[in-house]
Amino acid sequence: MAVSELQVQTALKELVDPNTHKDYVSTKSARNIKIDGGAVSVDILLGYPAQSQLVVIKQQVEDTLKALPGVTAATANVSFKIVSHSVQRGVKLIPNVKNIIAVASGKGGVGKSTTAVNLALALAAEGARVGMLDADIYGPSQPTMLGITDKPESTDGKNLEPLVGHGIQAMSIGFLIDVETPMVWRGPMVTQALEQLLNNTNWKELDYLVVDLPPGTGDIQLTLAQRVPVTGAVIVTTPQDIALIDARKGLKMFEKVGIPIIGVVENMSLHICSKCGHEERIFGEGGGERMCKDYSVEFLGALPLDGSIRADTDSGKPSVVSDPNGRVADIYKQIARRVAVKIGETGVDHSAKFPNIVISNT
């Protein structure tokens, strides 16, 4: 019995990507179906970094195709490609940076910087080229979290070369000042510093630039919204009511300026006693999920109140690199995949594809 392309497409339509929760045909991931007698091959091109998922998806597709009548051999070539996605209207993309992810919180102390650095490292672990911009001018923490003590260099006297920690490119005001030097600056100086750190860094072909924002909804957040091409924002909160009040303000700010909300991460969700194993929700329960329901955004995941997360970042080796196969790292990687998938589902930026229009007299 001859195998038809329709049979193959029908089978792929019924097969669901475990990360997008959609079939491979509707997402246009399935391409180049080839049939040679009983041998079938197909290319699966994913729109998100999925290094840890390639073997799983390859096996899933091949097993499905082999089960079709008449198929004697099946090959699935699985890969991924990350492209630039649309940003706020009127804001141009930054050279060599495809997508910018803002990580924000309404108030301090909710683990935003820890979430940002582990998100960046998790995206890199999945095969993406990732950068980290520490936009907290008053309280930069990424140099410590990434274990970077060097000073950035400039080859032309104008632009800085990003430093590298655990495989990701990074830039922070913390690289340029002494660790104990306070930044006694007014708002305009702070926003100018942010723009210089972003635009005067020689980023090297980034798929994602994660921006660790300071808490609140002040000058830096407004500058980011108006002048920086942000693909989407991740809101970090804890289950505590007082944190959720401020997180909601941050979410509404991004909505007002036209930046999509990728989702919400709930930190310190559950404490497990290291001695007896007793579980206790110290800061309340379900707050992040209720917030997501109220604003129709995705709940990306919940992280436990775990001393190792704090210890790892303090030592310059965040959880994703210090214990890459551990429970906490696995949660961060799941969150990172959802973030990448959500970005992949947004509109693609076509600005670079339009040719210049030249009008000449003939």
Tally of DSSP β-strands: 13
- Going across the biggest sheet, name each strand in turn: 6-7-5-8-4-9-10-13
Give the C-alpha Rg: 22 Å
Helix count, per DSSP?
11
Strand content: 15-25%
Q: Name the poorly predicted regions.
A: 354-358
Spatial shape: globular
Largest sheet entry: 8 strands, mixed
Which H/E pattern describes the elements?
Answer: HEEHEEHEHEEHEHEHEEEHEHHH
Percent helix: 25-40%
Mean pLDDT level = 87
> What class do helices, strands and sheet pairing give?
alpha/beta
N→C terminal distance: 62 Å
Give a topology summary.
Elements: H1 5-13, E1 30-36, E2 39-46, H2 54-66, E3 73-80, E4 97-104, H3 112-125, E5 130-134, H4 142-145, E6 163-165, E7 168-172, H5 187-199, E8 206-212, H6 219-227, E9 232-237, H7 241-256, E10 261-266, E11 271-272, E12 279-280, H8 287-295, E13 299-302, H9 307-314, H10 319-322, H11 327-344
Parallel strand pairs: 2-3, 4-8, 4-9, 5-7, 5-8, 9-10, 10-13
Antiparallel strand pairs: 1-2, 6-7, 11-12
